[in-house]
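Work Package 3 (structural annotation) set out to generate three-dimensional models for the target panel prioritized at the project kickoff. During this period the team completed the workflow that converts sequence records into discrete structure tokens, so that structures can be stored uniformly alongside our sequence database. As a representative example, we reproduce one entry of 186 residues exactly as it appears in the project archive.
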Amino acid sequence: MSVDEILLETEDQMQKSIEATQRNFNTIRTGRANASLLDRIEVDYYGAATPLKTIANISTPDASTLMIQPFDASSLTNIEKAISMSDVGLTPNNDGKVVRLNIPPLTSERRKEFVKTAGKIAEEGRVSIRNHRRSAIDAVKKLEKASDISEDESRDAQDEIQRLTDQYTAKVDDALAAKEKDIMTV
């Protein structure tokens, strides 16, 4: 594996870390109805844990309501149970055809809790990026030790890896700032 391949792979992995962090941010409530709140919910569907979005249509009829319409009406009670058991913190209302989730306005205390949760998610993203950096630097050092590249090339590659790390860490920080602003906006 060459230095260029290591750099490309590292950048790709860091980009995937950013995308995963962003997906995790989307599962945090902001006071407005958003179908991605239910992304992590899995329903017991004929004995298999199935993601909710694959067995139901999720829509937002207004800013404070989520409506879940299952493709199979027999799964309605399982969907209701899965939402109740989840960490979403919403109470489902089943009318026999659809499940409605009313999203109450967030209190300032609850908003602060969500900001803390977002901070933890961002830190997980930063740790993931730093782990990719460590792996890439180890790979470059192995190349240097095997005399495949010179000491100067190794140092340049390590500097480039650090620059990538700083760049992607800044992206996580920007995403966190945007999410905090979104959470704190009433």
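Residues 35-102 form a domain with the Gyrase A; domain 2 fold (CATH 3.30.1360.40).
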